[in-house]
Amino acid sequence: MISLSAVECRIIGVMLEKETTTPEQCPLSINSITLGCNQKSNREPVMSLAENEVQNVVDELVQMHQLMIDQKASSRVNKYFHRFCNTEFGNLQFSAQQRAIICVLFLRGPQTPGELRIRTNRLADFADVSEVEVALNQLQNLNNQRLVKKLEREPGKRDSRYVHLLSDLDAGDLVQRDLVKGNLAESSVTQTENIASANDPKLAQRVTELEQQVAVLTEQMACLTELLEDK
What we know:
By secondary structure, this protein is mainly alpha-helical. It has a domain at 6-90 and 212-230: Arc Repressor Mutant, subunit A. Helices cover 53% and strands 6% of the residues. It contains nine helices and five strands; from the N terminus they run αβααββαααββααα. The longest helix has 30 residues, at 201-230.
């Protein structure tokens, strides 16, 4: 099983997300990948990566056969598509629901089933939280591979979170990182979302919708940039 760094997870997560939400923009240039990695919405933690940093990691992923340069692209800049899953090149074959869960775990770190149901709504359809839990259980033993793990429930929390196991950080490291970076330096968007989730499910849904609108605007900006680069 592959072992990815945090930035590698972010890049693959971006490519999985854009492939579903804005397929007309794919394959992606380094500029588009960078914008996707640095989004302030739908990302935890928020990153601030330079294009040269993203290029270096993309080159590593190409060498790992997780990404490929699109040789058919007619633009002057290289564009990339992933080979991470659901391709003839690898053994990771996900359902739409499983793929959506992995994508969100790559982009946002450990999540509860309830959070996953809300945050995957542009990527796959879940009738209810129980369907999310079924997909999570499948990912705990998918073709004899354990791809996600249920974490111990945190004190004061109602639900346990799940973490993917495709990172070079083990689950303990991820929890510690989340406690330090998430609880002590949590972004205002996430704080608002957590408060909303606790007090008003409809407000939580509204916050999520606003995040998604920001993400769409970011994607549209990336598309305009692509058009300018191709000229």
